[in-house]
Amino acid sequence: MTAPWDRRSDKERERAEDLVLRSWLPAVADFSPYWGERVRGIGLGATDFRDREALLRLAPVRELDVQRAGGDGAPALLMRPTIEQVKTRATGSVLSTFLAAIRREGTDGARHALLTEYKPIHVHRGGAANDLAVAYSRSDLDRLHRCGARAASVLGLNDSDYLVSAIPAGPTLDFFGVYHLALGSSMLALHPRGHGDPLERVVESFALIPTTVVAVHPGEAVELAGVLADADANVARVDTIVLVGPPPAVGVRDTIRDAWVEAGASASSLKVRSLFAPSEGRAMWAEDAEGGLVTYPDLEVLEVIDPVTLESTDGAGELVITSAGWHGTALLRYRTGVYVEGIDADGGDGRTVPRLVGRVQVRAWQPTVTGSKGDQHVLDVRGVATAAESLPIESWRAELRGPTSRIKSDRFMVELAGELSEEQVVAATEEIATQTGVWPAKVVAVDPSVVATKISEDGSAFVDLR
Fold this sequence. Notes:
The chain is an alpha/beta fold. Helices cover 35% and strands 19% of the residues. Helix 1 (10-31) crosses helix 2. The N and C termini lie far apart (52 Å). The mean pLDDT is 93.
């Protein structure tokens, strides 16, 4: 394949995906007990689990599923091979590295090669409550540098740029994504803001370098422009604002742009682009000039599913990711909880890679709710569908209501469309609590027509009425 990563033909992309999955999927099935058990559960051995068709036979999993299997941080997602397993399952390039190391150093060489390829040496925390640890091996970090270079290319950045980041330091994908954006493209970057620091901590960086790029969370972009204007910081050279998060609505983007122009940036050259990926991912997607998030089909398999039926869809739904080729943490058909309007297979800006286009909403089915004692919990409403699978019902709907003068907590309520006995409702309530992580305030069986009407009116089986 001679075409650049973002200019390959459909045939070349399919071949690249096949080359990755052919060796990586069997390795995951062998190296990870959690994924190996799931693969065996669909009647496949590691040798047979080697392409997209086999991958799609696995049921998609949620964060709650892997947390329960692996405990805190979900260590079940780690790939932990022995040297003998690597000799049997590793990709050709990895195997060549092992054999060369063994020739040079014998047993010590094999051990060092194993550590380089698979030992977790770096972690960021993801998930709805940052409870999921996503691990990287040394080889993963090398891949991440290349992804940073790709993202910079999409954003129109290079080694002549100077970046100041207002993303707080910490073990987050946002922070590391910006770090590798700069590292991969060899631009000079300053990351002055520590965890808990105010935006004012960023001001002094503008006196140190001729800043051309600023990375900031979308919700702080306007405020940061005001802080810099009040401090009379020199932002005249700034031509790119990188919003680290989902692409904002057009009106919000215009407001951000206007705030930076008012602070001193050039109205004729200023770009406002996004850099985003689900917090459980690794490589962050950069937004192109046409407003699409450019993905990496040789590094991940992306799908969109209906969060209720789990069926694949060409339209809007939940984004599902498989982290193809990564060696620390492995994700197979992982449900990100991110709502997307769809994947555009036609590319943009002359690129041929798929892009995420339209509205992107993080944690669309995982709101945070307040308990009776003011404590916070993540409600995974997708679990209602799992709990309802064994019930003789046509459909279901759930709603979330806020506190009242009498009830001080949020209230999670579920309606099941069908005739159920009192015992079935009690059992369903317990299962819904298990699958969603929150005990519902009310579960009732109602006439199917009532549920159908409400879903039609709300446009969804779940509505947040707080």
